[in-house]
Amino acid sequence: MPNDNPFQDPLRFERQAPECAVVIFGANGDLTKRKLIPALYRLAYDRRLAAGFAVVGTSRTPMTDDQFREKMREAVEKFSEDTPLDEDVWGAFARGLYYIAGDVKDPGMYQTLAAKLEQVEGERHTGGNVLFYLSTQPSQYAIIARGIGAGGMGKGGGWRRLVVEKPFGHDMASARELSNQLHEVFDESDVYRIDHYLGKETVQNILAFRFGNGIFEPLWNRRYVDHVQITGAESIGVEGRGAYYQEVGALDDMIQNHLLQVMATVAMEPSASFRATSVRDERSKLLRSIRPWSPDEVLKNTVPGQYGPARIGGEDVPGFRQEPGVDPAAQTDTYAGLTLYVDTWRWAGVPFYIRTGKRLPKRVTEIAIQFKSAPLHLFNRDADADGLNLLILRIQPEEGISLRFLSKRPGSGMTLRPVSMDFNYGSSFGERSPSAYETLLLDAIIGDPTLYTRQDMVEASWAVVEPIQNVWRNHKFDFPNYASGSWGPAASDEMLARNGHAWRRP
Ligand code: BG6
User: Fold this and answer.
1) CB-neighbour burial class of residue 358 (10 A; exposed 0-12, middle 13-18, buried 19+)
2) How confident is the model over 133-178, as pLDDT tens digits?
3) Distance from chain centroid for Cα 336
4) What per-residue confidence (pLDDT) applies to 505?
5) How far apart are the CA of 13 and the centre of ligand 1, in A?
């Protein structure tokens, strides 16, 4: 059994979920198995869920409640890496798992679901509270929301909320249309658009770092910051998602949502309070202050890339166009590098460089704040004295914060060399960090939307991304333009070099 002693783990008792039922659409899918059920099980293990808790899974595959429970048990065994399957906790959790099969396009399925919810409410005492979680094809989101409304489940005895997975639209018009469709049944305040990056501990820590301390914020502006680099690099390729990915590309898959949210967190103004509206307002304001590029400017300030084949560590790695399900002439971007500016007094003239890509040399997500150098160089330096006056916020892996600065080398001369001051999450706290889905699911059940994106934020992101998307789609790039296992296209290095900057090699 998990440790019960409140003196040994006071945090465990901090936030408790009220009773509720979580309805998962797409319950036979990958996300449910890999993320949602393991996260909910972990919340149960940590005693954060109410006794009156239930999950109703639904998808087209016929299954009984017991078969669903068995499948979810396998999922927890396989994907809950750091949580053991405790028979007592699992037993209690599994009794609250239910399943119905149905096609989301069939109105009858919503009648069945409503009846099942009634049964579950009677058996589990979920208080009429329902969290609907859409983990299906995005083309089904509006259909499901309407079905929930038509089935009389949009309102009820308790609260009703809707969690929507990404992608939220594929451009400004479709995002707005989707919001309108969801609003036919759910108020904006009950729509929770999930962006799992906002749930990452280290992304949340950016706010703590900036606004919980007095020493960094006075430097956090154009007077002291030379430029900012945000990197979301992945070493994996498209991992069997080729057919989906070729329609989406790196810009929409990673930047429109995750990395722009990270940028907003790094650059936003201090929020007047830590209330959801206040924090979201500041994020939104920041996103709306990013200068959108004209078509000519897009070609100068953005670089798309696509990986080609390579031989890495004695193995042949296919190019994107050779991946299963991918058109051999695909023009998809698997890399995106952007220069952005934030038109505010705080940030005027400071470049924010953002890059993401598949099949880069390593998996690393980080933010590097490059401060200006000292006005005079009084001392001799080692030849490799670059990467100074640099603050690195490491989101993953090896979560932590490093400050790089010059120090005197021991000896009689006055020669300086760069050193690092490091904070490492793992060793400093020695505690497990909850996964992003644990944090976000608990927030949605509690009714705290701080880490969810709001309609205006999504639209502000599309206002930045859409002009780039339009130029990229109508331009024929010479792809592939970077080899698997390299740091991306040369044009991306050249983009920074024009400003006298260079991408870090994390
Ligand atoms: C997803 C993207 O949203 O984020 C994937 O669709 C990407 O392509 C993933 O691999 C990265 O998430 P994380 O948490 O592994 O950095």
Assistant:
1) buried
2) 999 999 999 999 999 999 999 998 899 999 999 999 999 999 999 9
3) 17
4) 92
5) 30
Sign for the CA dihedral angle at 395, 401, 405, 410 comes to: negative
Provide mean pLDDT across the span 317-341.
96
> One-letter amino acid identity for 207?
L
Please state, in angstroms and rounded to a whole number, the distance separating the CA atoms of residues 334 and 305. 6
Q: 246 — alpha (psi -120 to 50), left (phi > 0) or beta? A: alpha
Position in ligand 1 atom list of the atom nearest CA 200: 14
Query: Between the CA of residue 505 and those of 113, 361, 364, 365, 381, what are the distances in Å?
Result: 51, 10, 10, 12, 21
Active site residue 377: no
Q: If you take atom 6 of ligand 1, which residue's CA is the nearest one?
A: 253
Measured in angstroms, how far is the CA atom of residue 442 from the centroid of ligand 1? 21
State the DSSP code for 100.
E
Atom of ligand 1 nearest to the CA of 257: 3
Going from the Cα of 258 to the center of ligand 1, the distance in angstroms, rounded, reads 9
Ligand 1, CB cutoff 6 Å, lining residues: 166, 196, 234, 253, 365
Residue 238 CA, closest ligand 1 atom number: 8
Question: Contact at 8 Å (CB) between 437 and 35?
Answer: yes
pLDDT value of position 274: 80
Specify the residue with its C-alpha closest to ligand 1, atom 5: 253
Peptide linkage before 138 cis (omega within 30 of 0): no
